[in-house]
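Encode chain A's predicted structure.
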Amino acid sequence: MPATERQLPIGLPSGGALLRLPTAGGQAMLLWPDSLTPIGWRSNGGLPPLERGLATDLEERMVYAVDDRSRLIGIDLVTQRWRPFLVSARELSATPDGVILGLDSTRRPLRFAGRALTTYRAAVEGGPVQLLRAPSSALVAYSRRSELAQVIGEDGELRRFQVPAGELTSTWYGDLFVVATDSGLIYIEPSGKPGPRFVRMKGDPTVAAFSPSGHRLYVARRRNDLVMVDRFTGDELKTLELPGTIRTMRVDRTGRWLLGRPLEGDSVWVVDLVRWERAVTVQTAWAADLPLVAGSKALVVRDGKDLVAWDLLRAIPGPIARLKGAASDVYLATPWLPKGLTPDPETEQALATAEEPADSAPPAAQATPEPAAPVSVAPIMPPGRPTPSAAPGEPGTQRLYLQVSASQNQEFGRALVEQLKTAGWAAQLLPRKDPSDPYRVVIGPYRTREEADADGKRLGRTYFIFAVDPGGN
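Encoded structure for chain A:
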């Protein structure tokens, strides 16, 4: 059967750029993922040597990285200037939308969001920990050494669970965590009262990863396969045979591609989650930053001293660009592009979402589509009291809103507004002032920040307070 080109499903979140971060110090620069050529954006010079990138905060137009002194470095995408932020934090990590998590010198968790630092009151126990987002402003600290998972809120520890050592993954929203053990999966709901729930799975699971929307869980097993699991029912939907066992994997932000690192050798298996098939095997080393999928179709890998981009949408995926001598730097896929620039319209059909990446759906010409993902996987709790939507405050004062989503996908925003309204929230989609602005889903307005924050904590999902002046700015 002749190979056919892999079409990009309409509406699939894509776009963005590849950010090159200098390990020897100097300037950061943006590259087109397909051609590995400069976009025309560079940071101001003088960056310290950078060890790894963390994430992009689209709301603040900031990219965060860690330098060789373990400091948090922020690069302003608009002004192109940089500065250190957290100079004594440790074990820094980031959420997909750019919230920075870490520990201070007393092992108290730190949360850096919107350029504001929150220090939590409870200390994290055990040795090295994995820090992940939980609903609202809480976080989870998981220590494999002590087999302990702590759920920590701003005012103290909320709950703790004894969890066997294993590979932990979570939804992008932090409402569900899964630990893969050799006998099954352990499900943890950080905001729920029940403790961890164990589900036996045959085949010796090794590692798991959620789709960006959280409605699918992909589980690799030692019987040399990959299983697609329905997150809500727990049903095993599909199984894909592999040439070996995956020990590490990551899903790109579009939900189209899964990259798996086998137990043996330096290679990566690229799984097309739409076609449910192994698209290609690429010989390359696995690192914290690479390989990655940037945009919608470019697999970026190291090849010796060079950086190479592969086109995954070709009938037979293959290399399309090489940047010589660039392998020593570190890289980060960012959904941001300078104003006025747009991706290639033939391959980039939508800009990446800021907080709500949607999983891909098969094109109509392919196999039977899977059930559509729910608009939001985070639990949406009804308000404890009516939202004061009819109380914008005194004339001439700012109106305060809870922003719960910022996306370039207008239909997604409308659907989320309807879901929130059904749950009793006074939600709306703010109009855009510029085509490059996101569609903001907000709740409110509120008279005070205290009222807004109280509802935000009841909401059960990530939010921040957004102010609009009387003129609508």
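Helices lie at 410-422, 449-459.
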